[in-house]
Amino acid sequence: MAIEHADVLRAAHLARVGLSEDEATGYVDDLSRILKMVDQLQAVDTQDITPLAHPLDATQRLRPDEVTEHSQRERFQACAPAVTDGLYLVPRVVE
Amino acid sequence: MHDKTLTELAAGLQAGEFSSRELCQAALERIEHLDGELNSFITVIAEQALANADAADRARDAGNAGPLAGLPLALKDIFCTQGVRTSCGSKMLDDFASPYDATVVEKLRQAGAVNIGKTNMDEFAMGSSNENSFYGPVKNPWDLSAVPGGSSGGSAAAVAAGLVPAALGTDTGGSIRQPAAFCGITGLKPTYGRVSRYGMVAYASSLDQGGPLARTAADCALLLETIAGHDVRDSTSVARVVPDYTAELETSLSGLKIGLPKEYFGDGLDPEVETAVREAIKVYESLGAKVCEVSLPHTHLAIPAYYVIAPAEASSNLSRYDGVRFGHRCDDPTDLEDLYKRTRAEGFGEEVKRRILIGTHTLSEGFFDAYYLKAQQVRRLIRQDFLDAFDEVDVLMGPTAPTPAFDLGAQKDPVSMYLQDIYTIAVNLAGIPGISVPAGFAGNRPVGLQVLAPHFAEAQLLGVAHQFQQATDWHLKRPAFGKEMA
């Protein structure tokens, strides 16, 4: 399946990666060749094959719903780009 | 001291031939003199390392030293280290000092090991050459015009150049084994789930696995028995007893059944690499092993499946880098969307963006079934190939990489670069363990022999590698680079 300029811009928007028109153009050829290589998968009959999401076929373990950690807000906010009064600062969303 | 293995250095410390401070000081001096050219380290923590070396010396004097007490190690810059930069080779995390330690870092510290610093790597572990780092490419100590392999190239180059006796790396599609092969050292990718991924920056969560790079299989055994084990903080880590890998190294090879996958000896394999690998297999035959040909019929689908699954998982994992809680943030964002988009555009490099775009595209509406679901179905076929082969043989052997280390800048096409991992990538999809051991040279560049075993058979794998190293001297060869320094 070929990928077009609009597909690259759509993926970039979904991934929230800013790309200029020129940058998107630069990725079209690369991504097309990768997808062409990936298209070899389509030749395989996988009907009735269960997808393998975990290499050991393990399922997610559950643990007791108990508090195991104390609040470490200050510690984890120490590496944030901008905080004030214990809150992460981001641009205003609603004016 | 820089020529010695981890095991030899441990014995030297125990015998009082030198102190941990002297050992760590020597490592730091080599790094200071040699790493300017090699670029294998992103961060060196000299003061902290010497303080920890002194603590190890005191613990030894008091008779309560851990199994790795006072031994200098380096960590791929993907492992979180409290208070120390963890950049993952990216501008995105250039100023990120982790608020906590990864589980493996805790385990190494408890065993007394001294962390010297954090090694260079392909950004977010995406690469096969270590040319994708924000901090510049690493060079191969055997030939400074060659790549060291990726993405754990900094760890491999640092060990090969004798800057540290061992290091940790991670392997998502071959990123421990391929750089180990390119740099002439030993690298082990354990079974998926054998080593905790807590605090290991995630690239592709169902494939990533941490493991050791060292001079010998015996050193890898020593490190694996320290870092392996169940971790309640990583729900994908496996609750199984950790064997005494060191004690099991001396297993006889007599009667060992070795399978040679015919798909690993086909088109694209460098003739000198093939010669070296076949000579290595003859050594095994001389030691009593039986060799036969086997088939892994879906091998050609491993790279296509990987380049759907890994980017898909990466696009999800890397969504956390949004400039809000940690890492890079763009200047003066106009609104939240501008903050996200410009932060990620500025913080990520070209290869990371490429994989995020592919992953997002293949997971998006209308493409999920054709790509992601299909790849996961093919993944089961690939794993079944290995399970079927291990019904016939004990281990599989073949080349680690199709060529020796290539020149810096030689691989410009991403798809050609991806093909470098043709013999390693299926192992991650199946989750089995694999090891690369030095097995000769192609020109002046090392060649690796890859050995694969069933899930959780690391003890057998390490024993098989160790017996080869008892019978050969490829692991004793050292590059000329840095030889002038004592």
TrEMBL record, chain A:
Entry-linked InterPro entries: Asp/Glu-ADT_sf_sub_c, GatC
Keyword Ligase: yes
EC number: 6.3.5.-
Sorted UniProt keywords: ATP-binding, Ligase, Nucleotide-binding, Protein biosynthesis, Transferase
Any GO BP: translation
GO molecular function, one term: asparaginyl-tRNA synthase (glutamine-hydrolyzing) activity
Pfam families per the UniProt record, alphabetical: GatC
Family as reported in the entry's similarity comment: Belongs to the GatC family.
UniProt subunit comment: Heterotrimer of A, B and C subunits.
Designated name of the protein: Aspartyl/glutamyl-tRNA(Asn/Gln) amidotransferase subunit C
Species, as recorded: Chromohalobacter japonicus
TrEMBL record, chain B:
Pfam families xref list: Amidase
Ranges annotated as spanning the membrane: none
EC number(s) per entry: 6.3.5.7
Active-site residues annotated for this sequence: K76 (charge relay system), S151 (charge relay system), S175 (acyl-ester intermediate)
Keyword terms, alphabetized: ATP-binding, Ligase, Nucleotide-binding, Protein biosynthesis
Domain Amidase: 22-462
Catalytic activity of the protein: L-glutamyl-tRNA(Gln) + L-glutamine + ATP + H2O = L-glutaminyl-tRNA(Gln) + L-glutamate + ADP + phosphate + H(+)
Broad enzyme group: ligase
Quaternary structure note: Heterotrimer of A, B and C subunits.
Purpose: Allows the formation of correctly charged Gln-tRNA(Gln) through the transamidation of misacylated Glu-tRNA(Gln) in organisms which lack glutaminyl-tRNA synthetase. The reaction takes place in the presence of glutamine and ATP through an activated gamma-phospho-Glu-tRNA(Gln).
HAMAP family per the UniProt record, alphabetical: GatA
Protein family according to the UniProt entry: Belongs to the amidase family. GatA subfamily.
Name this polypeptide is given: Glutamyl-tRNA(Gln) amidotransferase subunit A
Organism: Chromohalobacter canadensis
